[in-house]
Amino acid sequence: MASASYTEDLSCPICLTIFADPVILPCGHSFCRECITVSLKSQHQCPQCRATVPTEGNNLLTNHILKSLAEKVKENEKLKNEYRHDKEVAEWLCPEHDEKLKLFCITDQQLICVICCNGEKHEGHKFKPIKEAAAAVTQELTTFLQQVLSDTPTIESTAKTQREEITKTKEKSHQLMTQISSQFEEMHQFLRKREEEIKNELKHKEEDDVEKMSESLNAIETALSENRELEGKVSSVLEITDPEKFLKSWTEDKTVVTAKSSFRPRGNTLKVVNTSLYLGPYESHLQFFMWKEMLQVIKPREERVSLQSNSANITVSDDGRSLFFTPQSSKSQSIYHVNYKQNISASSVSQFSSGQHYWEVKVGQREYWEVGGENTFLKFDGQNYYDSHQGNVLAFNGSPQKIGIYLNCESKELSFYDADNMTHIHTMLPYSRPVSAYFNMAVDRNPLIVCWY
């Protein structure tokens, strides 16, 4: 910035270049002698302040200070230009030997001079003249460019496929959002309908009870009114102090006589009708009973998996839900690991090869169990949970009594849950299709049970 300012201050206002033989006018302004001489021929005024100049340019005094400064600036510019040229030349000189770079070291991939070629640093290396090396590198780059150009369509195709997958994902997400909303709406409709039905039932019971109690209240109030009316009449007769008038009133008012002869106390015979308002389990277990009712309308349901075993020590229940260990030797007091396979009873299909499936099994307090698919399962050894495929210990440390298994044949995912609260335990990816439900458990006194609802 300072250099630019100095150059501007040392420039002639007419030619806008560094002063050449600067002269000073009486008004104090300075110009190149040649510039001001030409200017004064047409008008005898200072080009800057318009002050009158009575003399020709040849008679003006030289501004020696400006001249000296201008010459120094010109010299510096000359040196800069020479340095710039020398620097450009130096870029083509060997930094070690100041010799022109004429060779290309193929081994080190760098320009060198003739002296470098014979030096120890490049001993045993291969060299080429610059033009020949440039031609070889050009050929290599051309080949490389062709590789890049041939690879680009593949990348573009991959990018297109990825964009399509993004679109599919968004569409799938939208579809699932709609499906989720629809399924929740079905549950909402069911719950709203049952809410109205139960509230209407309560309302009807309330109306029936209130009607019965209102009838009872009317009878009580009628008896009370009759008693108070009779009380008033008797009291008015008793207020007569004259014996003759008293007896005359008594004999003439037959209503009192009739009431006395027919009066029967009713205070102990009238009973309060108590409320019979009762909604059964809906009073205390409403949510639980609604959940049980919703199980009848929820689709899809859990797989009603039936069990089977080829072991003589295993007995299958009539409904196919339970397996009982029936020891037949002295080894019955030991702990066994028994393998079981399950079939889906509703369609008599023993294996899952498509679709999405969910089933639950009660593991209880067993010290060892394996559940899942035949080749991909979740294992518990009494302390830790394991992924059968990778064999690694899982971070889950809960104590589920029932394990829920969710199989997605399309995504090849097998997921495990604590079936009591639906906490996710782990998801495994690798498995081979078709998949048979698989159980391997430590035998105890409790049967192996597949959960049905």
Features:
453 residues; 8 helices; 7-stranded antiparallel beta sheet; elongated; metal-binding; zinc ion binding; zinc-finger; 18% strand; alpha+beta; Herpes Virus-1; TRIM/RBCC; Jelly Rolls; 19 strands; Znf_B-box
Summarize the helices and strands and which ones pair or pack.
Elements: H1 2-9, E1 22-24, E2 30-32, H2 33-42, E3 61-62, H3 64-90, E4 103-105, E5 110-112, H4 114-117, E6 127-129, H5 130-238, H6 243-252, H7 254-262, H8 286-295, E7 305-308, E8 314-316, E9 322-325, E10 337-344, E11 356-362, E12 369-373, E13 377-380, E14 385-387, E15 402-408, E16 413-418, E17 423-428, E18 437-442, E19 448-450
Antiparallel strand pairs: 1-2, 1-3, 4-5, 4-6, 7-10, 8-9, 9-19, 10-18, 11-15, 11-19, 12-13, 12-18, 13-14, 15-16, 16-17
CATH class of the domain at 305-450: Mainly Beta
As a whole number of angstroms, the C-alpha radius of gyration is 56 Å
Q: Give me the CATH superfamily of the domain at 305-450.
A: SPRY domain
> What average pLDDT do the residues reach?
82
CATH-derived topology of the domain at 305-450: Jelly Rolls
The secondary structure category is alpha+beta
Major sheet: arrangement of strands: 8-9-19-11-15-16-17
Low-confidence segments, ≥5 residues, pLDDT <50? Answer: 329-349
Number of strands: 19
Strand fraction: 15-25%
Helix count? 8
Distance between the termini: 87 Å
Q: How would you describe the shape?
A: elongated
> Any idea what the CATH architecture of the domain at 305-450 is?
Sandwich
| Helicity, as a percent range | 40-55%
Tell me about the largest β-sheet: 7 strands, antiparallel
Give helix and strand order, one letter per element, not per position. Answer: HEEHEHEEHEHHHHEEEEEEEEEEEEE
